[in-house]
Amino acid sequence: MKLEPSTFDNFYRVLTGVIVPRPIAFVSTMSSDGVVNLAPYSFFNAVASDPPTIVFSSTRHTGVKRKDTLANIEETGEFIVNVVVDDIAEAMNITAAEYPEEVNEFDLAGLTPVSADLVKCPRVQESPVNMECRLNQIISLGSGEHQHGLVIGEVIMMHVRDDIIDGHRINHALLKPTGRLAGSMYCRTSDVYEMPRPIYNPET
Ligand SMILES: Cc1cc2nc3c(=O)[nH]c(=O)nc-3n(C[C@H](O)[C@H](O)[C@H](O)COP(=O)(O)O)c2cc1C
Questions:
Q1: pLDDT confidence tier of residue 92, bands split at 50, 70 and 90
Q2: pLDDT by residue (tens digit) across 58-69?
Q3: pLDDT above 90: percentage of residues in the chain
Q4: Mean pLDDT of the chain
Q5: What 3-state DSSP class applies to 99?
Q6: Is the confidence at residue 57, as pLDDT, over 90?
Q7: Are strands 148-160 and 129-141 parallel, antiparallel or unpaired?
Q8: Distances (CA, A) of 158 to 54, 89, 91, 97, 154
Q9: Whose CA is nearest to atom 9 of ligand 1?
Q10: How confident is the model at residue 63, as a pLDDT?
Q11: Structurally, what CATH architecture does the domain formed by 19-187 represent?
């Protein structure tokens, strides 16, 4: 079967169904008036190591209201990516409804805001990894109601729970990251295996 995005209805659903599993950025921000916001974004990844750079993408509007995360980052130039793990997956889901901008999703989801070192918005205490980010740039993609802002941010400070890190190695059995499949389907990373990368040797 061939699917052409311009003629296949709701191509987005197939696209997000095949690029799986996706990590989930739980993004905390603060408006210039001091209103705290928290929401999940699974168009998310790391894209450069030096400077350490992450991206996530947000639609500008939901059809009903603006996306507060994008608006806050445009206002303040900073945000925090908290990693979603199994223990906070349900709390993450609670924050995803389209609440008015004055709502603090930390309160709604029963999550604890804690101070960050270099940015004003709070970290999620219950998340084992928090990445304080400074905005590099926002690239606009698409137009009209489909317009997205691709947020490019530099990680300027990372907080990692002590028990999950040993040197540079992260213990994924303890981290328990949550993966997003399509729609409301998620997965765990409890079935992992090792596959060392081959080394090319031109003399053999
Ligand atoms: C697991 C999950 C992943 C999501 N990923 C995205 C995404 O990548 N981009 C996006 O625009 N919305 C995404 N959403 C929807 C937003 O979280 C939702 O619109 C939220 O209300 C935005 O909140 P805000 O206005 O406070 O930023 C996702 C929702 C869930 C549950």
A1: very high
A2: 999 888 889 999
A3: 95
A4: 96
A5: coil
A6: yes
A7: antiparallel
A8: 12, 21, 22, 27, 11
A9: 58
A10: 80
A11: Roll (2.30)
Q: How far is the CA of 43 from the centre of ligand 1 (A)?
A: 9
Distance 108 CA to ligand 1 centre (A): 16
CB 148 within 8 A of CB 57: yes
Task: Report the pocket of ligand 1 as residue ranges, CB < 6 Å.
Answer: 24, 37, 39-43, 57-59, 62, 67-69, 93, 96-98, 180
Q: Is 165 helix (H, G, I), strand (E, B) or coil?
A: strand
Instruction: Pick the residue whose CA is nearest to atom 21 on ligand 1.
Output: 98
> Could you tell me if 182 and 18 are in contact, meaning their C-beta atoms sit under 8 angstroms apart?
no
Structure tokens at 105: 């999703």
> How far from chain centre, in Å, is Cα 82?
7
Is the torsion defined by CA of 151, 144, 32, 74 positive or negative?
A: positive
* CA 39 to ligand 1 centroid distance, Å: 6
Pocket test for ligand 1, best of 12, 30, 58, 74 (most atoms within 8 A of CB): 58
Which residues face 135 on adjacent strands?
A: 153
